[in-house]
Amino acid sequence: MQISLDYYRILGIPIQAELNLIEQAYQDRILQLPHKGYSEYAITSRNNLFQQAYNVLKDNESRLEYESSFFSSVTETEDLIEDEEETEESIGVSDENLDVVRDTNIEIDESLFIGALITLLDLGEYELVITLSQPYLKDKSSLNNFSDQEEQISIIEQDLVLSVVLAYLELAREQWQEKQYESASHSLAESYQLLFQEDLFSNLRKEIKQDLGKLRPYQILELLTKEDADIHGRQKGIKLLKEMFNLRGGIESQVTDESGLDIDGFLRFIQQIRVYLTPEEQQVLFEEEAQRPSPAAGYLAAYAGIARGFTERRPEFIIRAKNSLISLTIHQDVYLEQSICALLLGQTAEAEFSLSQSREKKVISYIQEMSQGSPDLLPGLCIYTEKWLQTEVFPQFKNLASKNYSLQEYFANDRVQAYLETITNPLSNDSEDSQSQEFISPELELPFDIEQTSHQSYSFTQFNDLKEQTDYEEQIINENYTSSSTSDLSEINLSSGDVENDKISLLVSDEEDNEDLIGFNDFLEAEIEEDQNPSQNSSYNVTAENPSIKQETNYVAKAPQTSINPQTKTSSESDNNLIIGSLLGLLFLIAIAFGASKLLLSSESSEDKLQISISEPLIELPPNSGETVNQKMDKLDQDTALKIINQWLNAKAQATGPEYNSGELTKILTEPQLSRWVANSRDLRNKNAYKRYEHQVKVESAKVNPQDVTQGIVTAKISEKSQYYRNGALIPSLSYEENLLVKYELIKDGDRWLIKNSQIIKN
User: Fold this and answer.
1) What's the sign of the alpha-carbon dihedral 740, 745, 748, 749?
2) How confident is the model at residue 751 (pLDDT cuts 50, 70, 90)?
3) Could you give the domains of the chain?
4) How many beta carbons lie within 10 A of that of residue 236, not counting itself?
5) Does residue 42 contact residue 173 with C-beta atoms inside 8 Å?
6) Do β-strands 2-3 and 736-749 pair in parallel, antiparallel, or remain unpaired?
7) Inter-residue contact 269 to 241 (CB < 8 Å)
8) pLDDT tens-digit map of 140-182
9) Within 10 A of 325 (CB to CB), how many other CB atoms are there?
């Protein structure tokens, strides 16, 4: 049989090589071994091919004869190529021309075929290896040409399969490097399928499967980012993304799938691909994922619903988004987003109520500033909503980043007006139909003739009484919080570390830093306890340069505390055609009622309080010999300080130990120290590592700040021995034994001292 090779390439030498170089090359090639999966038959076949090349080239007479034929065929081939380039139409490769090209081939015995395939692999002729092998894989009866022994035929078949698989793997590697991820995935899949069908090389099959997993994020990104991508390609990309969700067990899951992405890398990956998904694609994807349940997916689905409802003028999607946000209040402060949804649904009273529940102090200050001169916060909320949509929401969706939309256009849309009118019926005990509506508390019909002044003041019509509604919602939210406050909320640790396994480079977006805007990253921070000081105004980026990420704040889920319960003035005689002056007068009256209700509630709440001092126990308890830490709070002496430090060190040992019990940290630490050590515990668990500590403590000093008796400073000498274990094995290089002088900053919380911060003074 003929093979497309020449003897110089087989030995890896130049045509002008001297005899000593030929001999050296031959010896080197014999010593080099192919892939360990090849049989002795394959190695012998390869060595015999080297021997044949060496025998021809080492003898002057046979070499001259070969070179004469070789150079002649090369010249004729070059002439053929030049002729093809000169003609306007390619003459193609006819049978006659093909014979000329084949003159550059060499004649080999069939027993050398496997050796020739291995040599072609060494030379990078991967596609040629696949082409030459396919006929034998399709028609295995042709393998009888190589041997008449059944046992040997089976070995040859394995060598043939291995050659094709290795060719596919090398092709995939080249395609991966050239960022042809879909092609690389196809090559890997072909090799895996071949091994699976033949049930061969299980270890190699496992490696290929892992490579397919590592390639999947790149493949998804390519399928979604192609400008000329067809619907089938996008659907395939989304399907692969869903498979990743299922393999990992959800967005918040700590499980690492075959992609190799840890939770940090996976979250960055989600942030990266969001900008290539349409609002509809994101809404369908994340609403389905939110059923897991997944708070993060629910939040992303709400984003998509808001974007889609606003841009497509379909308020029903905003209603779905708001319902998703309501279910998330036990996880995070999402009242600001709820307020925006209510505004877009024309429910101004509820919008102000939700805004009053929010702890986004910086945003609220901005809204108040933009509402100066107005009896309510609606002008500022409208301004903020437009800014939030343009800079935080729209850039997260395909084809929306460059769009400009305004609230005026939204509310002026006929479809929006018609839909909002259908949900503007007041709440009534006599109306059974209103109880069956999809949304429970419509307030506002429509903005009437939206005009933008220096503060973009907006006029609205028709208010309804919201007190019954808000009281009901507060009850539901408090019940949800109470029932779930004892459950462990899923935690996500977003660090800015590099992602392993050639993680996908993060996208660069607008460089403007809108720190006063809310976003997906802030929602995740409710479950994330970062190794940072929450009091510091540091911008936290998940993507490389996300323009709309506000200052980091670590929230602790709390039951909503209604400091303001707005009671809107019922106006049954209000009409859609009232003039703007009447509307402004109505707004003024509502503002007065709003303030009066606030004062009334404040005075009522103070009268209803139980006259019991928190410093006096309700029941006198007998003295306990095992006195707990912080029971003697009148002074911070060295004995109390010693108990505090020992409690802290025990909590640290439990949080970083093999059980990763971080619950004890909350009993002795406060922010920012608490977030740091919760994050440390989680990081160790992610690395399958833990620590064992031994401590000796000597308190040097303990004193209360005379300017503020709720603050204290403790200085202590700590002898600390730490042993670091990973995968159950001790890592001496990460273990240590040190004597430290540490200063602890304490803060008094009720009847106990908590450690706020610590600093190593000397070691």
Assistant:
1) negative
2) confident
3) 2-220 (no CATH), 233-426+439-481 (no CATH), 638-762 (3.10.450.240)
4) 17
5) no
6) unpaired
7) no
8) 888 888 887 888 889 999 999 999 999 999 999 999 999 999 9
9) 27
